Amino acid sequence: MSINVNNLTKIYGKQTAVNSITFNIPSGKVVGFLGPNGAGKSTTMKMLTGYIPPTTGSGSICGIDIMENSLEVRKIVGYLPENNPLYLDMYVKEYLTFMAGISEVKQKKEAVEKVIETTQLQRERHKKIGQLSKGYRQRVGLAQSLIHDPKVLILDEPTSGLDPIQVVEIRNVIKSLGSDKTVLLSTHIMQEVEAMCDRVIIINKGNIAMDQSMEELRNDNSNLEQIFRKATNHVDTL
Amino acid sequence: MWTLYKKEIRSFLGSLIAYIVMGVYLIMTGLFLWFVDGNNLFDLGVASLQVMFDISPFILIFLVSAITMRSISEEKRLGTLEIITTKPLTDRSIILSKFLASVTLIALTLIPTLFYVYAVYNLAQPLGNIDLGSTAGSYLGLILLAACYASIGLFSSAITDNQIVALITSMVLSFFFYSILSMLGDINWLDQIGKSLSWFGLEYHFDSISRGVIDTRDVIFFLGFSSIFLGFTQLVFESRKW
pLDDT (tens digit, 9 = 90+) per residue, A7-52? Predict the structure, then answer.
């Protein structure tokens, strides 16, 4: 099992953001993490990447406990936080080299070249990040998460705010990664899940509302949007 | 950790702030030492850099606060904190590299003033008649003092995501610990209590080290003071985990 989550709970003050969720993801799968805003997607991802600790429950990535061995977990996880934060005053190559350094990559130059190629940033490599368009910034963010060749990728809304062409490009990049990495990505866009994922986990108000493979869903015949509405208790008014 | 340290240094040198800090420091100390009427070297007629060392702590309050104000607050605002804290780095090493980078920048700022030392050395009658021990002590004192200011600055930067709030908090705290505490020693009715409180002020130890007698107690005080504020910074930094 690549990602193992066991009764993971996060309580902020009195509000339960994530309520005892459990799921397992085998390696080499692309899993879509769906849910309305505030459902607890980002919180779950933050706990898995070691940014915040869970209130109770446990999790492990490739068998390494996220609490006890956080530093080891971070070495094998690539993370793209929500809104893709970047140092806008750094150059693309400089930024990626820096990220390679703090990710403890030994062969920095090769690693930087490789992610630049994977994310097709060749022509932008000498530009300042602040000068790039949103789509290219997203690629830089993705490149950063790939720099240490992680086994597990956690991407929080990797395609939000991109135009349709950029969405397709980023999607193809992620899809190509899915062949040898485990990917957990969150999104609001249903077509995206259909296009990329092997499995869907829908989370609502901190609870898992549905956890099914894409094949099962396709056999179900109803479209994903309806399933999503049903799982999150949205009554269709039309 | 060194990667982060190098990146911090590079981003100082890549932005205007480093050059403004260096320029302002050199101009201010230069003016007071050589030109401002009444107190300058020629008026006093003594071959000593005392004037520079008297005003430097106050200039540094402003400059160190300006250097450190964005170091954590900006990362919070941009969200990049979430990236570096999910890399295989401990919170402590993140804070320490930012701290060391700030202190390094101040040390670099002080280097050009060695020219003043050279000039005064040559102006002295007879040649070289200046108190080099006291000068060396003062330089060490300034660096240690800057380290304390930097730790206060990082703490202020950690408690907010607004640079201006960080700047003002840092200046107020630094001024309090440098000046206000030692002023308490001069208030008569506070008597012994005031004297004891002034011992906790940075000025007391800076004056002591400036005399050229490097007392380990002073050095330990400065280092301890910085460590305490760096500890507070780490505490604030980790508050996201509560």
Answer: 999 998 888 899 889 999 988 889 998 888 888 889 999 999 989 9
Q: What's the predicted TM-score (pTM) here?
A: 0.90
**Contact between B87 and A102 using a beta-carbon 8 Å cutoff:** yes
- Distance, CA of B31 to CA of A119 (rounded, Å): 54
- The secondary structure of B102-157 as a DSSP string is HHHHHHHHHGGGHHHHHHHHHHSSSTT-S-HHHHHHHHHHHHHHHHHHHHHHHHHH
Across the interface, whether the CB atoms of A50 and B86 are under 8 A apart is answered yes
C-alpha distance from B71 to closest chain A C-alpha (Å): 12
Tens-digit pLDDT profile for residues B136-155: 999 999 999 999 999 999 99
- Shortest distance, CA B99 to any CA of chain A (angstroms): 17
Show me where the domains of chain B are located.
2-241
- Is the CB of A101 less than 8 angstroms away from the CB of B3? yes
Domain A3-231 homologous superfamily, CATH: P-loop containing nucleotide triphosphate hydrolases (3.40.50.300)
Q: What is the pLDDT of residues A60-81, one digit of tens each?
A: 999 899 988 889 999 999 999 9
- The verdict on A102 touching B (C-beta cutoff 8 Å) is yes
